[in-house]
Amino acid sequence: MGQVLQWGHRYGAVRPDHFRVAYEINPFMDLTDQPDPSRAAEQWGAMVTTLEQLGASVEVLAQRADAPDMVYAMNLGFAATVAGQPTAVMSHMRHPERRMEVRSAAPWFAGLGFARSVVGRDGVGGHLEAGDVFPFGDALVAGFGPRSDELGLKALAVELGVRVRALRIVHPGMYHLDLAFCPLDSTRAIVCPDAFDDASARAVLDLVPDPLVVTRAEALTMCANSVVVGRTVVMPACPERVRSQLEQWGFEVVVVDVSEFHKGGGSVRCLTNPLDIVVGRDLPSVPGGQVVLPG
C-alpha cells in the first residue's frame, strides 16, 4: 500500500455568492441551463462541512460579483511552501472571462501568508491554470493544451524550483488535468488515458505504479474530480467498479452532491484548492526547475 498523501488537509474555497453560467467556455456550459442559487449554496456548504468533519480546514474567499466561475477555486493559483516560504503562483487564465478572478485571489493568498508570483499577463507570458497541476512522485504532473501551455508550465517550474512532467490533453470534456487525474496516495491515482494524446497516455501510465484506470464514460461522471483526505476520497460520483477498487485498496468513499456546479464544468476538486503542498516533502526540489515533455 502506498503512503498516505501528506497534503490535502487544508483547502481554499470560494463561496458561491454569484455563481451562474454567463458564457460558454467548456462543453458542460449551457446558457439555457442555469444552476439554482439556493441549491448550489446548500451543496457547497455540505461539501465544506464534509471536508471539515474529515479533519480538513477550509479557508473561504468571497466571490466577486463579476466573476461567476471564481467558485472553481482550484484554478486561482498553485500554492506551495518552498524552503519555508509559502508561495502562490497565480494562474493566468486562457479565457479573458476569468482573468479578473486573480485580482481578488492574489491579496487573499497574501493575507494567508503566501507571497504572490505571477505567471503571465495579457499579451505576455504563458497560460497556467492550477487545475492542471498536482504533485505526484518526483514531480508536479501537469496537463497542457486546452488551458495551460508549455510556457506557463516552464514559469511554474522555475518559480518553485521543481520538476514538471507535462501531459498533453486532447479531450474537450477533460480540459483540465483534474478531470482525468486524481492522486490517491504515493503510488496510486485515478487516471483516464483517453484524456491525453498517445504519448502522454503512455507517460501517465508509466508514471503511476498502481493506476485506477477509468474509461471516458466513467471520467465524464467527474469521478476523478475528487479530493483525498488521508484514506477518504470525497467524490461527486463513484461508479461501482471504481468504488470496488478503492475499497479494496483500503479507501473510504464519501459521495457529495455538487451537481449544480457540474453545469459550469467543475466538481469537488475544482471547488477546492489545496494550500498545504510542501516542496521537499511532497515532491523534490530541482534547482532552476525542469519541464519534461511527453515522448
Question: Describe it for me?
Answer:
This protein has helices spanning 37-53, 101-111, 150-160, 198-207, 216-219, 240-248, 259-262; strands at 10-14, 57-61, 77-82, 85-90, 115-118, 133-136, 139-144, 163-168, 181-183, 188-191, 210-213, 227-229, 232-235, 252-255, 273-274, 290-292. By secondary structure, the chain is an alpha/beta fold. The protein has one domain (10-282): 5-stranded Propeller (L-arginine/glycine Amidinotransferase, Chain A). A four-stranded mixed beta sheet has the order 6-7-8-16. The chain has a three-stranded mixed beta sheet with strand order 2-1-15, with helices on one face. Strand 6 and strand 7 form a beta hairpin. It starts with 9 loop residues before the first strand and ends with a strand.
Rounded Rg? 17 Å
What is the CATH topology descriptor?
A: L-arginine/glycine Amidinotransferase, Chain A
Q: Please state the oligomeric state of the protein chains shown.
A: single chain
Determine the N-to-C terminus distance.
29 Å
Portion of residues in beta strands equals 15-25%
Overall shape: it is globular
Low-pLDDT ranges? none
Query: CATH H-level name... which superfamily?
Result: L-arginine/glycine Amidinotransferase, Chain A
Mean pLDDT across all residues, rounded? Answer: 96
Query: How much helix, percentage-wise, in residues?
Result: 10-25%
**What would you say the CATH architecture is?**
5-stranded Propeller
Top-tier CATH class: Alpha Beta
Number of domains: 1
- SSE series: EHEEEHEEEHEEEHEHEEHEHEE
- The number of distinct β-strands equals 16
Biggest sheet: strands, sense, closure? 4 strands, mixed
Query: How many helical stretches?
Result: 7
In which order are the strands of the major sheet placed?
6-7-8-16
Computed structural class = alpha/beta
